[in-house]
Amino acid sequence: MRITNPRRDARDARTRAAMLRAEADELRSLPVNEAARRIEDKQVEREDQHRRAAERARQLRDPFEHDPHRHDPRREGPTRGL
């Protein structure tokens, strides 16, 4: 769990806002077709990052997911053997 730090959050927000303003200024300086292509490319890149993050989360979700002893309804606990 992340501890809230208002100063860090404000700094991060200012940094992000400055980056977005610079990106908007750059897009305004481009021809419309080029700006549209860059926006679409960034959207595809963002979707790809989300897809990869979801795949990583799925792989790391439950370390015992494939443990046959955890999901075997016939097995109720440790057994004693001779």
How would you describe this structure to a colleague?
The chain has 82 residues and is mainly alpha-helical. 65% of the residues lie in helices and 0% in strands. It is built from two helices and no strands. The protein is elongated. 0% of the residues are buried.
Keyword list:
about 80 residues, mainly alpha, 2 helices, about 65% helix, elongated
Short summary:
The protein is an all-alpha fold and 82 residues long.
Helix/strand structural class: mainly alpha
Q: What is the H/E order? A: HH
Unreliable parts = none
The CA-CA distance between the termini, in Å, is 47 Å
List the SSEs and their pairings:
Layout: H1 6-29, H2 32-60
